[in-house]
């Protein structure tokens, strides 16, 4: 059995932790300045709880805006809960971090995108060819930019 470091999974969890930290700060202190968030999540994911009428309207994916009116923001290790206003109808949403597909704060041009990963695609991943050799004098200090798109799912 070949063991490998799951960099993708580790990065995914780290970025979820970053979102959790940002949302926890907002829950405790409110939104600072012009900050606001667009959060897109998969409504089909286990643990997502939204009103039936919202699920009918957004059967696959939904984007919420956390900006002017929100209340009851609660963050835990698995996700967050928030009440938002939909056409003068307050609705409680429970959103697991595993369902989040994008998190964007346009006020500072910051965004994260989470790609879904299918386990059956793992067999198609091509491993990079890494040769452990010593650099010669000419190549010391020079760098090479390598595109990782080839190994992305």
**Number of helices, counting only DSSP H or I runs of 4 residues or more:** 2
Rg is 20 Å
User: Which H/E pattern describes the elements?
Assistant: HEHEEEEEE
Shape: globular
Order of strands across the widest beta sheet? 2-1-6-7
Q: How many E-type strands?
A: 7
- Determine the N-to-C terminus distance: 22 Å
Strand content: 25-35%
Output mean pLDDT. Answer: 79
Secondary structural class: alpha+beta
Largest sheet: 4 strands, antiparallel
Helix fraction bin? 10-25%
Low-confidence stretches: 119-153
3D architecture notes:
There is one protein chain. This protein is α+β, with helices and mostly antiparallel strands and 153 residues long. 19% of the residues lie in helices and 27% in strands. It contains 2 helices and 7 strands; from the N terminus they run αβαββββββ. A 4-stranded antiparallel β-sheet has the order 2-1-6-7, with no helix packed on it. Strands 3-4-5 form a 3-stranded antiparallel β-sheet. Strand 4 (79-85) and strand 5 (90-96) form a beta hairpin. The two termini are 22 Å apart.
